[in-house]
Amino acid sequence: MDKGKYLIECNKIKQLLTPTINKISLKSKNLPYFLPDEVVVHNTSDDCWVSFLEVVRNLTPLIIKYDDSAKIKPILANAGKDISHWFNKRTGDIRHFIHPITGVKVPFCQHGPVPDVGVQVPSTEWQPFEGIPWWFDHQYIIGLLTEHPRSIRIKNMLTGQENVIKVCCEDSIYRIEERYNMFNNHSTSYTWKFETNILDKNLTLEENNIPDLRFKFKDCTLPDMFYTSCLMLYFNDDLT
């Protein structure tokens, strides 16, 4: 492939994978949402997650591929963290800057070279990159990063047990039920209610008319946890 055709193909890929289009297409795949607290625990070379531009990626296969390369060190140093500052929010591509010596627009790798990024100065080692760089490659995507984590109180009306868990504002009640299973393996045997209303498990908290009141509390100079909405679980006498 000659250089002109290669650049045209690269531009097509970038246009197709801009953050806006990318986010819409990913939402249509019903990918799970993750809390920052869930991403941060995956911070080793054997289990490396990162988030950027509201998307969570598992880069463990990339770590294995570049195991002996110094290029992987910046990613390992930021494992479990959000690295959105590495990328252009408008294009989704890695950030660029004008090199002070050559005057050429080159990738800005503030923590050192990373995989799929060429050398920044004229060199005999330079060669065109063919393929999709890892930050555009959908094979690493495992979910989306929540826009707003929120706490919810869940009370078992049979035993009186009460737990406060952190969830994603985009989570359906089914997803919240999965998170709550660590406290009650039989949560599917309960009817979930808020006040007197039975919850639709396919909908989110907001869609079930359970608003997040933290922003109103902030306006009134009250602490975020001044009040936490409570979901009530009523036993159905059906252990499943």
Verbal overview:
The protein has helices at residues 3-16, 19-27, 36-40, 60-65, 73-77, 173-180, 214-219; strands at 33-34, 43-44, 47-52, 55-58, 96-98, 105-107, 141-145, 149-156, 162-168, 190-194, 197-198, 230-235. 22% of the residues lie in helices and 22% in strands. It folds into two domains: 3-145, Flavocytochrome B2, Chain A, domain 1 (Roll), CATH 3.10.120.10; 149-235, Ubiquitin-like (UB roll) (Roll), CATH 3.10.20. The relative contact order is 0.13. The strands form three sheets. A five-stranded mixed β-sheet has the order 1-7-4-3-2. A five-stranded mixed β-sheet has the order 9-8-12-10-11, covered by helices on one side. It has a two-stranded antiparallel sheet with strand order 5-6. The protein has 240 residues and is α+β, with helices and mostly antiparallel strands.
**CATH architecture verdict of the largest domain:** Roll
Total DSSP E strands: 12
**SS class:** alpha+beta
Helical coverage, percent range: 10-25%
Shape type:
elongated
**Assigned CATH class of the largest domain:** Alpha Beta
Tell me the CATH topology of the largest domain: Flavocytochrome B2, Chain A, domain 1
Distance between the termini: 59 Å
Q: How much of the sequence is in beta strands?
A: 15-25%
Rg over CA atoms: 23 Å
Alpha plus pi helix count: 7
Q: Taking strands numbered 1, 2, ... along the chain, how are they ordered across the largest sheet?
A: 1-7-4-3-2
Sheet of most strands: 5 strands, mixed
Low-pLDDT runs: 13-17
Overall mean pLDDT: 84
SSE topology string: HHEHEEEHHEEEEEHEEHE
